[in-house]
Amino acid sequence: MNLEQFDGLIFDLDGTLVDTMPLHLSAWERAAGEFGFHYDADWLYSLGGVPSRKIARLIAEQQNISLDGDLVARVKNGHYQSQLLRAEAFPAMLSLLRQWSGVLPMAIGTGSARVNAERVLTNTGLSRYFPVVVTADEVTSHKPNPDTYLLAAEQLGLAPERCLVFEDTPIGRQAARAAGMACVMVVDGMPRFEVG
Predict the structure, then answer these.
(1) Which UniProt keywords are listed (predicted)?
(2) What is the pLDDT of residue 49?
């Protein structure tokens, strides 16, 4: 696939560029034990890109239990942050960044909080590739809504339809499509260049 047909590249962070999803899942598992809710790894992975406080509210609704979503999210994020030094970029994605750095402008569009995204980008050395980073803190309507990707395109100064998104979850792909952007899925750290 010739990426030069696009004017810019926008990347999800967790599970797309960096192998952080196991860290998120481990943090959710610990929080489940502390707050007494059922832990479902597959379901939680499918919600990649959704902020933790919204996931906590979904858990309370689906399991018909009372949870303080903000408190659960804070505890979960504390467990996650304690593991961040273990996060590493996927080799194939790092190679792609190096190949296109300076050729096409690039941005991050993530459902993570800014503090988490910045730590991951700094710890992995990826921050130098991204002049634009849009996090859950900058939008009110998160993935699968298009707002994260639309704001990233706007901050890059690009038309949405001229941007290519890299995502690892169906929710992220839905957000990219809703923004009018083509999307490449990343599976196990490898881009699948069938654009959807």
Answers:
(1) Hydrolase
(2) 73
Query: Catalytic amino acids?
Result: 12
CATH number of domain containing 99: 3.40.50.1000
What pLDDT is stored for residue 21 in this prediction?
Answer: 86
Residues with pLDDT less than 50, the chain: none
CA distances from 108 to 39, 152, 154, 169, 173 (A): 29, 7, 12, 15, 14
Question: What gap in Å lies between CA 103 and CA 112, rounded to an integer?
Answer: 27
| Residue pointed to by tokens 């803190």 | 137
Q: What is the pTM of this model?
A: 0.85
The two three-digit tokens of residue 193, written as one number: 């260049």
Whether residues 61 and 105 fall in one domain: no
Instruction: Say whether both 69 and 41 belong to one domain.
Output: yes
Q: Identify the pLDDT of residue 86.
A: 86
Q: Contact, 12 vs 165, CB < 8 A?
A: yes
* Residue 17 DSSP code: T
Indicate if 74 and 103 belong to the same structural domain: no
Instruction: For residue range 133-146, list pLDDT tens digits in order.
Output: 999 999 999 999 99
Euclidean distance between CA atoms 48 and 39, whole angstroms: 15
Same domain, 80 and 103: no
Residue 164's domain comprises: 3-20+87-192
Shared-domain flag, residues 103 and 180: yes
